[in-house]
Amino acid sequence: MEKFEFNKAERDHIEKIIARYPDSQSAVMPVLWMAQEKFGHVEPDVQKLVAKTLDLPEAHVYGVASFYTQYYKEKMGKYVLDVCTCLSCQVCGGYDMLHYIEEKLGIKAGETTEDGMFSIQSVECLGACGYAPMMQITNDIYVNHLDKAKVDKVIETLKQGKMPEFEPIPMRVAEKS
Amino acid sequence: MPEIFIDDQRFEFEGNPKVLQFVLDQGLELPFFCYHPSLSIPANCRQCFVEAGTPVFNRETNSYELDENGDRVIRWFPKLMTSCSLEATDGMVIKTHRSSEKVARGQKDTLEFILINHPLDCPICDQAGECPLQIQTYKYGPEGSRFEHKKVHKPKRVQLGPNVVLDAERCINCTRCVRFTDEISKSKQLSIVSRGDKNYPLTAPGTEFDDPYSLNTVDICPVGALTSTDFRFKARVWEMNQTPGIDMTGSKGTNIDLWVRNNLVMRITPRYNPDVNDHWMPDEARKDYRRINENRISRPSIKLDGEQVKTSWNNAMLTFNEETGKVKPSEILVIGSPHASVEDNYVLSKFFNRLGVSDVHFANDIEKGRGDDFLITDDRAPNANGCRFLGFTEHDPAALGKAVSASGVKMVVILGDDLIGRGAFPAEAVQGKFTVFMGTNNCDTSNAANLVVPITCSAEHAASYINEAGRIQRTIPAKETVYTSRRLNLEMSLGRLDHFATKFDNWESDDNKVDCIPAWEFLIRLVQETGGDLTYTSSREIMDEIASAIDTFSGVSFERMDDEYGIPLKKENQPQGKTV
Ligand code: SF4
Ligand code: FES
Ligand code: FES
Q1: Which of A43, A62, A85 to mutate to test the interface with B (most CBs of B within 10 A)?
Q2: Average per-residue pLDDT in chain A?
Q3: pLDDT of B438 higher than 90
Q4: Can you tell me the mean pLDDT for B403-426?
Q5: Would the pLDDT of B506 be above 80?
Q6: Which end of chain B is more exposed for a tag (fewer CB within 10 A), N or C?
Q7: How would DSSP label each residue in A133-167?
Q8: Domain for residue B562, yes or no?
Q9: Residue A115 pLDDT greater than 80, yes or no
């Protein structure tokens, strides 16, 4: 089994994070992030490390980690497709998109392709309801206004090892009255 | 004094009560789930809604503003308020479902939401019959659901730890269980995991819910999400009767309820006592029902050719009187018991005083390191203080063993304490000495005894026990013996089955009634046999005599114990027991 540890520099940084809050419990989220950036995931052993470092109950850290789909509780594929199936996206076809992607990649939400390229997650609202249906890729770029053609294109791009381009979001300027 | 108006009725209050608790304290009903008087208040279930408002105070005139009818102008909170978290303030006006359509509607709609994903499995759910969700839905909920989609499925039958099973689908996420482990037992082993309609309480991966107080979460879970591994599917709530008692597995004096069906104790749950155990009890102590049900001594027995042979009560009394007649008082060693009641111990000492035996001994039952700072004690006996306050001589088990082995001792009388089983002395120590064991369960000591007298246990008699803090509390019989009847003893509870059962129903039998009597009763029968004058008809009467005879107990009575959550015996009256 891999052993997970923070080095001295990281521990110093964590001290600084803790100092920003009234108690160490509040530092759970940034420290989980740090851990995920370092190890690529926050598997139970990493959660344990975070709990030990912050002197918190393991159950609490697990509770926080499991709340957010953005924390990966197991090893994920290179690209994680977080397809929003929350209310707005759902009514605009979020599930159609999810199922299309599932079929295309031959895996279900919560699974990873055998080549380790893709994971799919069905996630809650990502705050882009105006551009529904949408997905986020590996906690990074948002792909909005999804349709099948767009999904095909995005997956092609990712297969070539490139992230899709950032889409500037059209701002609707309130009309002057 | 500050005042508050609830449904147009005026109440006065002191301090800073929360509205929900205050309403409940007035004996009024308000539905709620997540609130618990001993835990923090998260206000997450939203079931305790009320309308609330405060009177408008005019600083200039320094008085309340009045409307055209001369009534105070009330500024209402714009939304329904959760009464559990709302602090009462002077002049506050509260409307509950009794006077507000809006509140009644709010309660109904909240319930409809809570029930969206809740399974309809009450017929097979252990909580049914004592389920706040079931009761409140019945009283305040909607008649049906407008939700026609598939319910969310979550894990079922999750063994959270050795004693607790989780059915996540039933959970309404009130967080009472989580708050219990965070705030009361402090193991912090539970947390709500996942998100939205998928969440439920769980332990961290790779850990189990082995908190020594884990079963309290089953008690406070307002639905059937948490159930006891041991009690699951054993009995329906309405089949049992419920009787208050005292825990016998330690010296804390934890208040308990015994749940009995067909004269078997099916489960033990904690009973509220603000001065002793609040709402809680340790898991271990709940297993004590087995001692009450199983392996009981029924009918007296005597040892013939090394074998215990059942005999009649008459023969037991004859044998006892015959044997005491054969020895000098100084040759009898009388051993009382920290596991037996004050009344039994008192009559034991009184009986032998009459015969000229002045000293009664007892061995403490202490396991160093067993206790914690909460409800588990090093002392494994419920009544060591009872023995001390009666002036018995206290020994370590080994020291008592020496006294037993002494050559001058020809007869040993032991009250309800498996001294051989707990290693005070080996069975050989009593060989050749006539040994009488008055006990509840078959054990090494009953095996070694020449005469075994079956006596009632804490679940079968009314008797008092004094906890480590010097508080005297009493039990009420929960389980019938061959000689008692719940229909005649008005102190005993009658459950539905007891009410309606006849001898010919298959849910009621005599099989679980033990042939035993209280130790004090056996002793006074012995006296009466020889024409003596020791007469008591009840343990209540014995306690009255103790109260008038011994300073420490002055003012003590069953009535007071019942009314006052037990009575702390006055420190200055407590004797320093003789120790050897
Ligand atoms: S398991 Fe019971 S006590 Fe715990 S959160 Fe769910 S409903 Fe509340
Ligand atoms: S519902 Fe999908 S982004 Fe808000
Ligand atoms: S009891 Fe008030 S919100 Fe749950």
Answers
A1: A62
A2: 94
A3: yes
A4: 97
A5: no
A6: N
A7: S-EEETTS-EE-S--HHHHHHHHHHHHTT-PPPP-
A8: no
A9: yes
Nearest ligand by distance to the CA of B43: 3
Does ligand 2 lie within 6 Å of residue A86's CB atom? yes
Residue B225 makes CB contacts below 8 A (sequence gap 6+) with B166, B167, B168, B169, B170, B171, B172, B200
Which ligand 1 atom sits closest to the C-alpha of B173? Answer: 5
Residues A98 and A26 reside in one and the same domain: no
Query: Is B46 near ligand 3, meaning CB less than 6 Å away?
Result: yes
Q: pLDDT digits over B531-574, tens only?
A: 888 889 999 999 999 999 999 999 999 999 999 999 999 766 66
pLDDT at A176 over 60: no
Complex ipTM: 0.89
Asked, for residue B432, whether it belongs to a domain, the answer is yes
Residue numbers in A near B207 (CB within 8 A): 58-59
Ligand 1 atom closest to the CA of B217, numbered from 1: 3
Report pLDDT for B550. Answer: 95
Please report where in the chains the tokens 């009621």 appear, as a residue.
B508
**Residue B505 pLDDT > 90:** no
Find out whether the beta carbon of B178 lies less than 6 Å from any atom of ligand 3.
no
Pairing state between β B411-415 and B434-439: parallel
Residues B85 and B146 in one domain: no
- Residues whose CB falls within 8 Å of the CB of residue A97, separated by 6 or more in sequence, listed in order: A83, A133, A135, A146, A147, A148, A151
CA distance B282 to B260: 20
Q: Any chain A CB within 8 A of the CB of B203?
A: yes
Domain residue limits at A149: 79-170
- Other CB atoms within a 10 A radius of the CB of residue B288 amount to 21
**Nearest chain B residue (CA) to A59:** B204
State whether the beta carbon of B23 lies less than 6 angstroms from ligand 3. Answer: no
Q: State the pLDDT at residue A173.
A: 63
Q: Do residue B120 and residue B109 come from a single domain?
A: no
Band of residue B530 on the pLDDT scale cut at 50, 70, 90: confident
Range of B349's domain? 301-460+516-551
Interchain proximity A57–B188, CB inside 8 Å: yes
Task: Pull the structure tokens for residue B35.
Answer: 């609130």
